[in-house]
Design a protein that fits this description.
With about 70 residues, the chain is an all-alpha fold. Helix content is about 85%, strand content about 0%. The relative contact order is 0.18.
Amino acid sequence: MALTDDIEEFRAKISRIVDALEEISASSSSIPDTNQKDLSSKFRSLEDELDEVSSQLNKTIDLLAEIRARYG
């Protein structure tokens, strides 16, 4: 894979992470309006979404390390 391809892949992954975080932020803005009985479910959903972003971020960090190892 060429450097430009690696950079595009990295940028695409970052873009997906940012999009996911924006969705989580939008979802979390409704917390004050959430009924108390629904809060646990809301928090669980947010936690699951954040876990997914964390996984994506770790994979992106690994990709960046690979790019740095290949190209300095």
